[in-house]
Specification:
This protein is an alpha/beta fold and 342 residues long. It has a single domain, classed as Aldolase class I (TIM Barrel, Alpha-Beta Barrel), CATH 3.20.20.70. Helices cover 40% and strands 16% of the residues. An eight-stranded parallel barrel has the order 3-4-7-8-9-10-12-13, surrounded by five helices. Strand 7, helix 6 and strand 8 form a beta-alpha-beta unit. Helix 10 runs parallel beside helix 11 and helix 11 packs across helix 13. It is globular. Monomer. It comes from Parapedobacter indicus. It holds the Pfam family DHO_dh. Its main location: membrane. Its cofactor is FMN.
């Protein structure tokens, strides 16, 4: 069915197409039996798919990456499509419109996207309220991807991360600290060891509430050097955070066919990121001195891509660009391959 509507969607502005699809999905799920029908078509269940990672039990290891559902508006709908977990955000303490449009571009010949959205979101309180209502009657695992507002100076960034952490603590199952988006000026400087340790240690100090703590993960860029990845491994050990999300989008443009669009600024995702993302996962997995839970994301467009990331050391995987290009059936195809792999 997706193959029939994809040409129509791809004829639209990418951001408009996103709103059309997500809004249509929400409307369909409100119909009697809508969610049940989607689940019967797209979801795949098998005992071998279950994973326990950083203390949470996932029904399957295929999640939705941050960026698709920035405001926690479509969690139930994404769950009906068969995702094992949903990561919402990136959210910031205060609402912000993001960068000027156009800010999302399809590189069709490369099966890729370039985005410079700029953390456009309605603010953490909106997401928290939606998730609070959801958690009353739904058990889907939700991650909260948190960032800083564009107007917040880097030296004050820790306050923004704490604000988002506190607002979401009761309504998410795990956190992802996003310091690796290329679309907020200066944000990637927070990946340096000293400011990153400061942020993560501050969050860990607050990471307990009536005996409850939440796994905190760090999302990193694919553009880090081996030396910087070694620093990341040390930081994980020293701060005691739960793991890594590898990787965010890249600022690299090597080997692209879409020459004109390649000049657009922003983060590149999709097939051109597949190899590098897997390399980062493998490096982190083989060089860490202890088992390091990794969520692998970046260029997963086939079941084989997902399996490669798992073989490289990822415990879970996430989709975004592959989900847009290949459609929701990709989730089921990946789950089937994982369940029947030996």
């Amino acid at each position: 069915m997706y193959k029939l509507v994809k040409p129509i969607l791809f004829s639209l502005d990418p951001e408009e197409a996103h709103h059309l699809v997500s809004g249509g999905l929400r409307s369909f799920c409100k119909l009697w039996g809508g969610k049940r029908l989607l689940r019967s078509i797209y979801a795949y269940e098998h005992p071998k798919l279950e994973r326990t990672v950083f203390g949470l039990t996932f029904k399957n290891p295929v999640g939705l990456a941050a960026g698709f559902d920035k405001n926690a508006a479509f969690v139930e709908e994404m769950d009906a499509l068969g995702f094992g977990f949903i990561e919402v955000g990136t959210v910031t303490p205060r609402p912000q419109p993001g960068n000027d449009r156009p800010r999302l571009f399809r590189l069709v010949h490369d099966k890729a996207l370039i985005n410079r959205m700029g953390f456009n979101n309605q603010g953490v309180d909106v997401a928290a309220n939606r998730l609070r209502n959801l958690k009353k009657h739904h058990s889907v695992i939700v991650g909260g991807n948190i960032g800083k507002n564009k107007t917040t100076a880097n030296e004050d960034a820790v306050k923004d991360y704490i604000s988002c952490f506190d607002a979401l603590f009761d309504v998410v199952d795990y956190f992802v600290v996003n310091v690796s988006s290329p679309n907020t000026p200066g944000l990637r400087a927070l990946q340096d060891k000293e400011p990153l340790m400061h942020i993560l240690n501050a969050l860990q100090q607050r990471n307990h509430k009536e005996g409850i703590s939440r796994p905190i993960l760090l999302k990193i860029a694919p553009d880090l050097t081996d030396g910087q990845l070694d620093d990341i491994i040390d930081i994980v050990g020293e701060t005691g955070i739960a793991g890594i999300v590898a990787t965010n989008t890249t600022i690299g443009r090597d080997g692209l066919n879409s020459r004109r669009l390649a000049a657009e600024t922003g983060g590149l995702s999709g097939v051109p990121l597949t190899k590098r993302s897997t390399e980062v996962i493998r490096y982190l997995s083989t060089h860490s001195h202890q088992p390091l839970p990794i969520i692998g994301v970046g260029g997963i467009h086939t079941p084989e891509d997902a399996q490669e990331k798992l073989d490289a050391g990822a415990a879970l995987v996430q989709l975004y660009t592959g989900f847009i290009y290949e459609g929701p059936a990709l989730i089921k195809r990946i789950c089937k391959k994982i369940a029947h792999s030996h």
